[in-house]
Automatic annotation (TrEMBL):
Pfam families: ADH_Fe_C (PF25137), Fe-ADH (PF00465). This is Iron-containing alcohol dehydrogenase. Its EC number is 1.1.1.1. InterPro entries: ADH_Fe/GldA (IPR001670), ADH_Fe_C (IPR056798), Alcohol_dehydrogenase_Fe (IPR039697). Keywords: Oxidoreductase. Residues 184-286 form the Fe-containing alcohol dehydrogenase-like C-terminal domain. It is an enzyme of class 1 (oxidoreductase).
């Protein structure tokens, strides 16, 4: 679990105060990874104080993080600084938060990040790391994984060392998120709830968080009663609860298939989940009906025909990635999932997208 968290509009102002006691010396900098959408954004960046060798690195977010990118970022830090950093701070969406987590781990664990993709392969504590979400939904701020695309697979580094040491939840930071992106990333949270609550791994711990996140999502995306600020506050908490829910259970069909789309076509997590979930009536009938109502209410048009021109090898590559995520299928379908989820079944689903 995340050991420390502050919540509240304006809580980002406490950043300096939170970091100061963690400074290890003049040569041990704080490295801030900031989503490049905030480049030149004085409102946000003026509140990051740089001392000694501290550095802001702006991160482009067109593509999701790769293991090679993490290895490069780690090498850059090692070459530039004589000591390990005092802390790694990620300010942005799921991409930037995952980068901060992965860099923190790879600074203290030998070798290449691709070798740690999987479950509980990390041996040592990472560098002190702080997550500050600027868009809500992924639950990356609370989860024990950092999702990376490697040479062979898209898979998280899941470990007890992955969660942030500190999170700052300031809903005000989400005020300028574009509407479509707000929906896609918000639906990531909604899909986490549906997959967790309808999974065979469900337990009372996951259920209590999942139900809360689900209630919040319904309020935010289907009702008209909230002010803009309340909706931002609540979506930030829905993301947190959705993340907590899957931390102790698992995601399901939409995530498994969306990883395939992401791996082959570079389709990002949030929109990829939406594209897949739209076709999953057979597995999540009520959730999909609710999703379609949300989509209509917010006038969201999803891309169609993405797989229309793919050849057999390309479908195979997506199906391989999806099928490799065994715990997700076991959660979604049960222990006998292999007799239900055939390659033909996945091919037919992908062909609809
Ligand atoms: P993202 O990080 O790609 O951000 C989406 C877009 O929103 C970007 O273009 C970004 O620049 C923009 N943006 C972010 N904050 C903004 C703001 N305040 N104002 C204006 N624009 C803003 O998207 P995401 O959906 O947050 O994250 C997706 C990533 O998270 C994927 O890489 C996925 O694999 C990962 N993920 C991780 C976990 C986990 O548990 N670690 C869970 C789910 C998803
Ligand atoms: Zn997700």
């Amino acid at each position: 679990m995340v050991s420390r968290v502050v919540f509240g509009r304006g809580s980002f102002n406490q950043l300096d105060e939170i970091l100061a006691p963690k400074r290890k010396g003049r040569n041990a900098p704080f490295i801030f990874y900031v989503d490049d959408v905030f480049k030149g954004n004085h409102w946000l960046t003026s509140r990051i104080t740089l001392s000694y060798k501290d550095k802001i690195i702006y991160v482009p977010t067109k593509e999701e993080p790769k293991t090679s990118q993490i290895d490069q970022l780690v090498e850059d830090i090692i070459l530039e600084h004589s000591e390990l950093p005092s802390g790694i701070i990620g300010i942005g969406g799921g991409i930037v938060m995952d980068i901060a987590k992965a860099v923190s781990l790879m600074l203290t664990n030998k070798g290449e990040s691709k070798d740690y993709q999987g479950w509980d392969l990390v041996k040592h504590h990472g560098i002190y790391h702080v997550g500050i979400p600027t868009i809500s939904g992924t639950g990356a701020e609370v989860s024990r994984t950092t999702i990376l695309t490697g040479p062979e697979r898209k898979l998280g580094i899941n470990s007890d060392y992955t969660p942030f040491d500190q999170v700052i939840l300031d809903p005000e930071l989400t005020k300028d998120v574009p509407k479509d992106q707000w929906f896609y990333t918000g639906m990531d949270c909604f899909v986490h709830c549906i997959e967790s609550l309808n999974g065979t791994f469900l337990n009372a711990f996951s259920q209590s968080y999942g139900e809360k996140a689900f209630e919040l999502c319904k309020e935010i995306f289907l009702e008209d009663t909230l002010t803009k600020e309340d909706a931002q506050d609540k979506l930030m908490m829905a993301s947190w609860h959705g993340g907590m829910s899957i931390a102790y259970s698992q995601v399901g069909v939409a995530h498994a298939m969306s990883y395939g789309l992401g791996y082959l076509l570079g389709i990002k997590h949030g929109i990829g989940n939406c594209i897949v979930f739209d076709h999953l009536e057979e597995y999540y009938p009520e959730g999909v009906a609710m999703f379609k109502a949300m989509k209509a209410k917010h006038n969201i048009q999803l891309p169609q025909g993405l797989c229309a021109d793919l050849d057999g090898h390309q479908f195979d590559a997506m199906i391989d990635v999806a099928l490799s995520l065994e715990p997700l299928w076991e959660n979604a379908i049960g222990k006998n999932w292999k007799s239900v989820i055939t390659r033909q079944k996945l091919l037919e689903l992908y062909q609809k997208m």
